[in-house]
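FAQ: What does the model actually see?

It sees only this:
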Amino acid sequence: MGTIIQKFGGTSVKNTERILEIAKKIVERKKLGDDIVVVLSAQGGYTDTLLKKAHNISKTPKKRELDVLLSTGEQISIALLAMAIEELGESAISFTATQLGIKTCSNYNCAQILDIENKKIKEALKEGNIVVVAGFQGVDPYGNITTLGRGGSDTTAVALGVALDAQEVEIYTDVDGIYSADPRVVKDAKKIDEINYSEMIEMAGNGAKVLHSRSVELACKYNIKIHLRSSYSWKEGSIVKGEDEMEKEVIRGITHSKNLSKITLRDTPHRLVDVINTLSNKGYNIDIITHDFDLERGATISCILKQELLESAFEVLEDKYPESRKNLIHIPNLGKVSVIGIGVKSKGVAAQVFKVLSENNISIEMVSSSDINISCIIHQKNLEKAVSLLHRELIEEAK
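And it is asked to produce this:
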């Protein structure tokens, strides 16, 4: 038998009833002979509660102190689960990231894992313990507590899988697998039994919220299999793994993301790199960028970013390029619909996407594409309609 990593999200440990339920399942798995390491998120909604408390004190809390605060949520979860497992007759021990030695950089609120010391955790497993680890957090070279950003517990789980040479990382959540579209939007969305790393990275990065994209990237790098499943039904879920030997063209899914906006700087003499650096240096994450250059009029640069950042990003560009204010425009309330899969490379898929949207009077603001992804920026009011139409055309009715 080997080592299994099990990660449970916030909804899985949201109350005493759920903690007791997953404790029973963990103990059952332990009795099969595997070494079990459990990674936990904070209880559902608790991180948001802590953020609210912080912003009641300060509009711009210091990032270091915010990480100290937010890391407490996982500490509560791991202690309670360890107690529940002990009540069932199994030995358990909980560790925070600092106790365990999950080393990160000093990028507060969005740190990256650099290394994990596995000596302490291996000793605890050898002694027969179920080891319960706080996800989402780490410690920097100076001993400061850091957090990995939203969804970071997935990354903690995969990183532990790498450090312990685990057979598999099981990610338990409130859904029973990965679907070809959001089932809340598309009633005929299909469950995907297996999907490769590249496709899952694209889906996670374009609106599918079932897995954190950084965790899939890490799993891909070290070839760690991820099994996404529900902690409510305990049925087999979806497997994320390496490429199949024989790939056939297939559209895996239609994903979407909301609350986006577009900023355009028209007819400017400024270079693309300068404009983008101006935003990036202020911490703005840019999604899609387009650049058009005319010898007489100069460059037209457009970029997509989150709606919540629109006002402040617009002010940054106005201050940086005051002479170009009249040429600076923005479009709010946009969304992105993405077609993901090996099949995107086949001839005609892009044409199908544009045809479906055009025939239904859905205008496209911007387009981005790769070997396995075609993304269209459209008005948010048309987003769910676009997802349903494309799912029907490319998945439900595909031969």
